């Protein structure tokens, strides 16, 4: 029963954040949405912060899975292919639904004030940068690869954020195309240019 209950509470958290924002998403609101007592949230998560952390871990797990799925279908094990998989995974439907986007935004804002959430954000940020750097490093010197990775990470975050805040929502096709163009520009003139 526990995994089902935990999943139910995570879904209720995202729905509540989507509807009323993080500030007005109380343990009572989440419990009511999930049809459970507030004590269940304390039992499983220790409170609202613990539930937000669990919710973000689930969203990050979905992100990792979307990138893994794209890597599985790569025709060739190229840096370009892996970089594209990372880009596309970050704009996967699991990352751009309204409730997930609002949860991400709430998480980022809250992580500046909560050490446990700040650590989770740091780990996520470092993981992205490390994966991008590793792929660029296959065709560039270390410093160039790090710069290219920093640029692509900023572009992914910036495109995602602009889309999240736009009244019309995110244009996934355009965002992915812009990020792919950046990858192609960075790899131009390297041994990856022919791949």
TrEMBL record:
<dbReference type="InterPro" id="IPR001647">
    <property type="entry name" value="HTH_TetR"/>
</dbReference>
<keyword id="KW-0804">Transcription</keyword>
<dbReference type="GO" id="GO:0003700">
    <property type="term" value="F:DNA-binding transcription factor activity"/>
</dbReference>
<dbReference type="GO" id="GO:0045892">
    <property type="term" value="P:negative regulation of DNA-templated transcription"/>
</dbReference>
<dbReference type="InterPro" id="IPR023772">
    <property type="entry name" value="DNA-bd_HTH_TetR-type_CS"/>
</dbReference>
<dbReference type="Pfam" id="PF00440">
    <property type="entry name" value="TetR_N"/>
</dbReference>
<keyword id="KW-0678">Repressor</keyword>
<comment type="function">
    <text>Repressor involved in choline regulation of the bet genes.</text>
</comment>
<dbReference type="InterPro" id="IPR050109">
    <property type="entry name" value="HTH-type_TetR-like_transc_reg"/>
</dbReference>
<feature type="DNA-binding region" description="H-T-H motif">
    <location>
        <begin position="26"/>
        <end position="45"/>
    </location>
</feature>
<dbReference type="Pfam" id="PF13977">
    <property type="entry name" value="TetR_C_6"/>
</dbReference>
<protein>
    <recommendedName>
        <fullName>HTH-type transcriptional regulator BetI</fullName>
    </recommendedName>
</protein>
<dbReference type="GO" id="GO:0000976">
    <property type="term" value="F:transcription cis-regulatory region binding"/>
</dbReference>
<dbReference type="InterPro" id="IPR039538">
    <property type="entry name" value="BetI_C"/>
</dbReference>
<dbReference type="InterPro" id="IPR009057">
    <property type="entry name" value="Homeodomain-like_sf"/>
</dbReference>
<comment type="pathway">
    <text>Amine and polyamine biosynthesis; betaine biosynthesis via choline pathway [regulation].</text>
</comment>
<comment type="function">
    <text>Repressor involved in the biosynthesis of the osmoprotectant glycine betaine. It represses transcription of the choline transporter BetT and the genes of BetAB involved in the synthesis of glycine betaine.</text>
</comment>
<dbReference type="InterPro" id="IPR036271">
    <property type="entry name" value="Tet_transcr_reg_TetR-rel_C_sf"/>
</dbReference>
<keyword id="KW-0805">Transcription regulation</keyword>
<keyword id="KW-0238">DNA-binding</keyword>
<dbReference type="GO" id="GO:0019285">
    <property type="term" value="P:glycine betaine biosynthetic process from choline"/>
</dbReference>
<dbReference type="InterPro" id="IPR017757">
    <property type="entry name" value="Tscrpt_rep_BetI"/>
</dbReference>
